[in-house]
Amino acid sequence: MIVALAGGVGGAKLAAGLAAILPPGNLTVVVNTGDDFVHLGLAISPDIDTVTYTLAGLNDRTQGWGLADESWHFMSALERLGGAQWFRLGDNDLATHVERTRRLRRETLSAITADFAKRLGIRQHIIPMSDDRVSTMVDTDEGELAFQDYFVRRRCEPRFRGIRFDGLGDALPSTGLIAALEDPALEAIVICPSNPLLSIEPILALAGVDKALRHRSVPLIAVSPFIGGEAVKGPAAKIMRELGLVPTPAAVAARYDGLLDGLVIDHADAAASAPEGLRLLVTDSLMRDAPDQARLAQEVIQFARRCG
Amino acid sequence: MIVALAGGVGGAKLAAGLAAILPPGNLTVVVNTGDDFVHLGLAISPDIDTVTYTLAGLNDRTQGWGLADESWHFMSALERLGGAQWFRLGDNDLATHVERTRRLRRETLSAITADFAKRLGIRQHIIPMSDDRVSTMVDTDEGELAFQDYFVRRRCEPRFRGIRFDGLGDALPSTGLIAALEDPALEAIVICPSNPLLSIEPILALAGVDKALRHRSVPLIAVSPFIGGEAVKGPAAKIMRELGLVPTPAAVAARYDGLLDGLVIDHADAAASAPEGLRLLVTDSLMRDAPDQARLAQEVIQFARRCG
Questions:
Q1: Dihedral (CA of A63, A165, A149, B112) sign
Q2: What GO molecular functions are on record for this protein (chains A, B) (predicted)?
């Protein structure tokens, strides 16, 4: 059993690679929910949906988010009625949000996520980090912004000054997350190439998770989200620079504060400052397609075993 | 100024005819909201939407409800996730429900309906009968059913035994409805060819409406929804028969209990039992297309003036 901690697109890609090479049922993907928000009265879980759609093979590979073969009639009709246009919801994607919102009145996000995954033919476990509300708030030079305001509406343009996870103090990790970390069959924990600050740190900051990870008996490795000091997608590198950090392997390892047994980095970062006292795997970490994902996943698993 | 009381499709057709022949702004359509319900967490107002889409020229004339050129991607995606299929929401139509649901947290249904109408280019006034919740409950031989359960899910198959408007005792008529009835410029009130029991009686039963109508100084006429003892659309005739009533002009007039100055009926019903002490206009009341709607509207207005 492998546990992968993931955010959005990069995490979903490595999760898909791991799903391709591991026996069905031997992968648990724990997904950030700090980006979750309510839009048009609908409960949106962007990272959960990216991982789910990707593992189901339904994701749009061109735009990098949402569903392939999506249509946009709802958005056009909404525009005609004066509705908000800044966050785009496809007609198919909308079914996920409407049905989730309806079911959340009586069920946990964990239960709904598991059921959606099953219905879409996914045989791996997808688990939200928490069933409680955690809202990422971004402190910028234009004031504090809710994450999607910063990320989508403002396209990460304001200067990043810090981050706050509203509700984190009262949130419990999901029972599935704790069960996965305590599973006797657990072999390794993999932090996917997701944004350390925005996607992974909220998971690590949940009550009890840091402690469980520090008392683990299995290797914990991370895959750096940077290639040549830049993120493949998203604002990770921009954010780190705006915090005065350099997006190097050493900086990634520092974000995980002594937790790691090993770090996977790209050839392009081999010359950058490396973390001390940590095993390194230097490889081609760009995942262009499914074979890339499976190959990187295979290397990651083998590396994790060597780190044990 | 003409006030029309309307339910769904039949009422919307006559309202469209009235809109075509009256100066813009001289028509107020008061619409039943007893069919309103919450589905998938969304506030659905079927009659309001039918009237709005019809006056905007966006209605689907073939199926008789919803929007023309509708697409159904949302429903397909919802089916994949195990969501309810019995009430079908088109991708474009969905924008109305999502945006209305969102806005209802801070605004009245009246305000939202007026704004949607304006945005869709409608120059007539569309007013919900009430801004409070009224839910039509149908007593059948299979027990009491919420209206849409009876009407859509069960396709009106259970035997109709009676009707109850849940919430009606606490509901106030909308301020727009009262203002329209008190407007000094009011010339006539027209009850559209809608289901008397399901669509018109909830409007009439609102506190103060019956009294205002009985103290009116303008003619009040109704257009029978029956042609040859059958409804053009919907269960009106079936329901009346199941209540032991015969769908005749006399029965329609009786439902309105002495309120009417005149009744418009179809040639096909001219031989059926006529109400006593009431002016009758016998005409072709089937509205196949826009010219039919305008012609009937013209006859209705002229007849209403003669009833004054």
A1: positive
A2: LPPG:FO 2-phospho-L-lactate transferase activity; magnesium ion binding
